[in-house]
Design brief:
The protein has 272 residues and is an alpha/beta fold. It contains ten helices and eight strands.
Length: 272
C-alpha cells in the first residue's frame, strides 16, 4: 500500500516522487519477494515455476503500479494550483523512461546479491592511460580489478530494459573493449524485452557480444525463429548456443566463475 506523499509544489513535480530504489523496496515488501526467493526453481500452487525471470517481471510491474499511484498524487496536487497539464505530463513521461531502465538494473542487482555473486557496478574501464573517460559496462563480475588483472577470467554485463536501438550501444562498447583487451574478454548482454528482434540478436552475436540473455517469455519464440532460417551458409547452431534464458544467467555466472577461479562460489543451481 503506497503512502500519502507530502507534496511541495515549489519543487519540480517528479522530485516529490520517491526514488526508484525506495519504490522497489516497497514492491519487494508488498510481494513478499524474500519468501519467493527462498522457493526459487520450485513450483507454486498453480504448478508454475518460480524463476528469476518471473520474479523480475513481478517486481517490475509492481514497482510501476506503485510509481503510477505516486504520480497520480503529484498530478492532482499540481493541477490544483494551476500547473500546466502539458508540462506536467511531459515531465512524467521523461521520468518514466529513465526510471524504467534504472528499475531493471536495480532488480538485476537484487538477484545478483541473492545468489551471492560479487560484482562492481558502473565502473569505468580506461582505454587510454592519459584520458580519464572510458567504457562503463553496467556490471563487472567479480570486479574491475579482477578484469584488469586477467580479462579472460571476468564477465562484463550490459543490461537493457528495452532493446530497440540500444543494443547498438552494447556492440560499440564491446568492440572498443576487444580492441583494447583482445578477444579473450567475455561480454554478455541482458535484454528484458519481449520485443527482442531476431535481427538485433544475430547482429550482436556477429559483432562482439558473446552471449545474449532474453526474458523467458520471448526466449522460445526467438529460438524458433532462428531455427527456421534455412540459408545454406547460415550456421543456426552457432547462434542457438549463445542465446539463453534470463533465468539461466545466474547459474551461468556461478559456473563460469567456478571454472575460472578453481573454487566453488556457492551450490550450483538446478533449473526445473
Amino acid at each position: 500500500m503506497t503512502k500519502t506523499l507530502k507534496i511541495d509544489t515549489r519543487k519540480k513535480p517528479t522530485e516529490n516522487i520517491p526514488s526508484t530504489s525506495k519504490i522497489i523496496e516497497e514492491a519487494i515488501t508488498e510481494l513478499k519477494i524474500d519468501a519467493l526467493l527462498d522457493k526459487l526453481f520450485e513450483k507454486d500452487e498453480s504448478g508454475e515455476g518460480i524463476t528469476p525471470s518471473r520474479i523480475a517481471k513481478m517486481l517490475e510491474e509492481k514497482a510501476f503500479d506503485i510509481y503510477k499511484e505516486y504520480e497520480n498524487q503529484v498530478r492532482k496536487a499540481y493541477l490544483s494550483v494551476g500547473y500546466s497539464r502539458e508540462k506536467l505530463e511531459q515531465s512524467f513521461q521523461q521520468a518514466r523512461f529513465s526510471r524504467g531502465g534504472k528499475t531493471f538494473e536495480i532488480i538485476f542487482t537484487k538477484l545478483l546479491n541473492r545468489f551471492r555473486i560479487k560484482y562492481d557496478r558502473n565502473k569505468v574501464i580506461k582505454i587510454y592511460d592519459h584520458i580519464t573517460e572510458g567504457e562503463k559496462p553496467d556490471f563487472i563480475i567479480p570486479s574491475a580489478r579482477a578484469f584488469l588483472n586477467d580479462p579472460s577470467s571476468s564477465i562484463l554485463i550490459t543490461v537493457k530494459r528495452k532493446v530497440r536501438e540500444r543494443w547498438r550501444e552494447a556492440v560499440g562498447e564491446a568492440q572498443i573493449l576487444r580492441n583494447k583487451f583482445g578477444n579473450e574478454i567475455n561480454f554478455w548482454f541482458v535484454g528484458f524485452d519481449e520485443e527482442f528482434t531476431i535481427y538485433s540478436a544475430i547482429a550482436m552475436l556477429d559483432n562482439g557480444i558473446d552471449r545474449i540473455y532474453v526474458i523467458n517469455g520471448r526466449y522460445d519464440s526467438l529460438i524458433e525463429e532462428i531455427r527456421r532460417i534455412s540459408y545454406s551458409n547460415f550456421d543456426n547452431d552457432r547462434y542457438l548456443l549463445k542465446i539463453r534464458r534470463f533465468s539461466d544467467i545466474f547459474d551461468d555466472i556461478i559456473q563460469f566463475m567456478n571454472e575460472h577461479n578453481g573454487k566453488q562460489l556457492t551450490k550450483q543451481l538446478t533449473l526445473v
